[in-house]
Amino acid sequence: MTDREPPGTLAPHIPADLYRQAQTTGRPIVIVTHAPQTGRPARAYLIPIVITGACALGLIGTVAAVLALLEYAAHTAAAIAGAAGPIGIGGLTLKLARPNGK
Question: Which phi and psi (to 5°) does residue 9 adopt?
Fold first, then answer.
């Protein structure tokens, strides 16, 4: 009998002495090893896609909010200009809006 250990890692329920006994009696030994996983897991692709999608939605929402504020500011400026009438500064008169009645 030789004093060498069995190759690879044995499952916890197969003791080394049974391996040595099978080796001395000539019984066949079956060792099952799991193949390493090939490729990348789906999580490696999913997380960057989700983060990119959230950033894109946030950017679209920000652009929509800026456009809504710009439109509101334009309507407010038009309403103020229509109600104020002509504005004069140092002898120059500027009419901001044309009256609708003429």
Answer: -105, 125
